[in-house]
Amino acid sequence: MKYNKFIIRNYRAIEGPMEINIKKNKLVPLIGTNESGKTTILQAIFAFDYANDKEYEGRHLKELRNFYNPQNKEPAIIEAEISVKKSDFLNCISDENLRMKYSEIQSFSEITISRNLDTKEYSVSVIDDSEDRKVIGKEIVSRLPYIIYNDDFIERPKNEIEIPSDSTDLYGWLGIYERAFNKIESSIFDIIKEPEENIKLGILSDVESEINKTLIKEWGKISLDDTGCLSIKLQIENNRTLKIQIVEKKGDKDRFFKIEERSKGFLWFFNFVMKIKYNPKSTGSNNDIIYLLDEPGSYLHSVAQERLCQMIKNISNKDGKVIYCTHTHHLLDPKYIPTKYIYIVQKDKSKKNIELSKITNVKTDIKKMNELQPVYEALGVSDWDFFTQKQKIILVEGIHDKYALEIFLKSKVSSYIIMPCVNAESIYNNIPRLIAYNKNYIAIWDNDEEGIEYYKKSIKAFGKLEERKLLLLPNNDRKRKVRMEEMFDKDDFKKLARYLEMPDNSSYSNIMTSIMCCDDSVIEECANLVSQKTKNNFSELFKNIDEVYKESKKSNFEKELIG
């Protein structure tokens, strides 16, 4: 059973219905300025699962009314569409009589479960009896993937944790450390009962090693500092208190710190990694967990945030689905984040209601210069903030052309960044700004009537010095026109559609979007599936790009090519 989407109604300033679709896209960024309502959306989703009711002192279940519109007294409803087979649905019902009662129900592939946050009760779309709905709804939710919320502002890492006498109700930081103990096939409750001090110290050492292997290794991937000198130290005091310290090695000497004495960036990362890797709800094998990340990496350096962006992408590939909110462009790197699935959060004109819009449906305040412009406006940043001086910018006519090029790159970590414009004219309109800001760029137009027009117009307008940076798609077959989609063999689209389990007649734009929302392994397989003629076409284009930059005798793009 899997979550397909969430629908929110009357939750605080969300009048709704507000829909967040996660059926196909495993990574969903919510962007907007501060106070736009991003956190409210995450908390609403978190409130759907009754297993979270005690988390964070139940703050997500309090003060549910819209303070901007007190006249609205309708209950807060969180609804989830679930993919489920009839057999799995019946297996969720523990009561044999109830199971028999609904065994004759018509087959289905999807159902809807709603939770009324006033009553805390569930209802199920395929069940009419109100009492049965309550029981069965709760049983189904208990079998669904866990929903995990990470907000370091609410529950920060603790230096000391009291250990209760039994393990009946584990959550919060006690549950997190218990999970770390479980990784070495032990338990906090076993160690406090252990009479042998040396055995106790050995177990603690093993847990320290487990946490350090995970935490310090991951911190090293994003930190700009030397992390090899940091480690975690655990102690059990009076057989009732777990004490956690940070050890920093200075030469041959150890220095001990409380967790809160480290940088805010490290504190956030400690909170993030521990809750992801050692969450007590995690089964260790379920890759469908819903991770809700509230402003990840707020205290990290911009470079560290960019590295974190890749880490979040990897989590969505391997561990589950990620919905995260941010107001920093460093966590929206187009190399990792499918632009089409970005949602923009903002208040309506009355400032009383939170609205959610797909980036593709958002109108810009000024003339649209490129496909990412709604992102820039929502964040209140310049498009140039997305590009470093060293990066080589490639302008193409649209977002799907960007995806087509990226399919053939082995690694999204590249010195090249592809900037999707709106059409042939918008490439022409962007070039003066690139020149003015001394950006390293190449412009690529479709080899069709419109593309040729603006290619020639650009040569005339920007002169000989810029001419070498202006390219048309290769046209070796002397076709009447060559757009990016004509770089592919016609049969390629059918092969790709079947591999992606899409209809045979799926369009170029739909196929490109679907591919870029897949794991890297799927993207690589798609690149290998296309014909040799297609590979040759893109190889020639990449050679033309590298000739402009004259980086080496062998094309750097060619080195990165798949297939």
Query: Shape, please?
Result: globular
Q: Look at the structure and give the CATH class of the largest domain.
A: Alpha Beta
Count of DSSP E strands? 19
> Separation of termini?
36 Å
CATH architecture of the largest domain: 3-Layer(aba) Sandwich
The helical percent reads 25-40%
| Biggest pleated sheet | 6 strands, mixed
| Contiguous runs where pLDDT drops below 50 for at least 5 residues | 551-557
**Structural class, from secondary structure content?**
alpha/beta
Radius of gyration: 27 Å
Q: Return the average pLDDT rounded to an integer.
A: 83
| CATH fold-level label of the largest domain | Rossmann fold
Number of helices: 19
Strand order of the largest sheet: 7-12-13-3-14-15
Q: In the CATH hierarchy, what is the superfamily of the largest domain?
A: P-loop containing nucleotide triphosphate hydrolases
SSE layout and pairing:
Elements: E1 2-9, E2 18-21, E3 27-31, H1 38-46, E4 77-83, H2 86-91, H3 96-101, E5 110-116, E6 121-124, H4 130-143, E7 147-150, E8 160-162, H5 172-183, H6 188-191, H7 197-222, E9 230-237, E10 241-250, E11 253-257, H8 264-277, E12 289-294, H9 302-318, E13 320-326, E14 343-347, E15 354-358, H10 373-379, E16 392-396, H11 399-407, E17 416-420, H12 424-436, E18 441-445, H13 449-462, H14 464-467, E19 470-472, H15 490-499, H16 508-516, H17 520-529, H18 532-549, H19 556-560
Parallel strand pairs: 3-13, 3-14, 7-12, 12-13, 16-17, 16-18, 18-19
Antiparallel strand pairs: 1-2, 1-4, 4-5, 5-6, 8-10, 9-10, 10-11, 14-15
Helix pairs in contact: 7-8, 11-16, 12-13
